[in-house]
């Protein structure tokens, strides 16, 4: 097999591995956090006036709870890792 084809196969395997990692991480988050399992949305922070111009951004440590309150997300670190997009 020409080396270019081998490289393409290898790149395919790497991206597959990355997808598997993402699926596994998301699955783990739903196992850890009952609110993630229920599909509850994460809180978003619209007012980052101190931090700069990042705009509206998910706060992965917090879920929007019943009645508009906030509840802790036990899988916050996992979602932060996923957001980085690399492993
Ligand atoms: Zn959660």
Q: Which parts are unreliable, with pLDDT below 50 for 5 consecutive residues or more?
A: none
Ends distance: 29 Å
Q: What helical percentage do the residues reach? A: 40-55%
Q: Taking strands numbered 1, 2, ... along the chain, how are they ordered across the largest sheet?
A: 1-2-3
What integer value in Å does the Rg equal? 18 Å
Major sheet description:
3 strands, antiparallel
Query: What is the H/E string?
Result: HHEEEH
Helix count, per DSSP?
3
Strand content: 15-25%
Shape: elongated
- Strands, total number: 3
Number of domains: 1
| Subunit arrangement of the protein | single chain
Mean pLDDT: 86
The assigned structural class equals: alpha+beta
Can you walk through the features of this model?
The structure is a single chain. The chain has three helices and three strands. Strand 2 and strand 3 (70-72) form a beta hairpin. The two termini are 29 Å apart. With 87 residues, the protein is α+β, with helices and mostly antiparallel strands. Helix 1 packs antiparallel against helix 3. The chain has one domain. The model has no long low-confidence stretch (mean pLDDT 86). The longest helix has 30 residues, at 3-32. The protein has a three-stranded antiparallel sheet. The chain is 49% helix and 17% strand. The structure holds zinc ion (ZN).
